[in-house]
Design a protein that fits this description.
By secondary structure, the protein is mainly α. It has 4 helices and no strands.
């Protein structure tokens, strides 16, 4: 009985060590994910917040050139691309770009703070 109990205790300790190693690997992956996604949100948000006109004009130029390509007979990249370009126009002013940039910046900072205080 005693030998059986010792063998069970050894198996339990082996399983516990595996679970702990998996949980530390998962924690490390979540930590890295928070840093990467938070950094991406922060970088993109600050750019949109500080340079909204530049981003808006670049997007308008891309859409304008794509409309010209479609009018010239280029194939659509996805189903009803031309219709979706017309149906969902870009924001006409810089204020919406700034709002989106502020939101992304706040999300990036929140992710970094969540990671720091974990």
């Amino acid at each position: 009985m005693r030998v059986l109990r010792q063998a069970q205790d050894e198996r339990v300790s082996q399983i516990e060590s595996r679970v702990l190693s998996y949980s530390s690997e998962a924690e490390e992956a979540v930590h890295l994910q928070f840093l990467i996604v938070g950094g991406f949100c922060l970088f993109s948000g600050i750019q949109m917040l500080i340079f909204p006109r530049k981003k808006r004009l670049a997007a308008e130029a891309k859409i304008r050139s794509r409309k010209q390509e479609l009018a010239a007979g280029a194939p659509e990249r996805y189903f009803e691309e031309g219709r979706s370009i017309d149906a969902y126009p870009l924001p006409p002013t810089d204020s919406r770009w700034r709002i989106k940039g502020a939101f992304l910046t706040v999300c990036g900072v929140a992710l970094w703070l969540l990671d720091y205080f974990r």
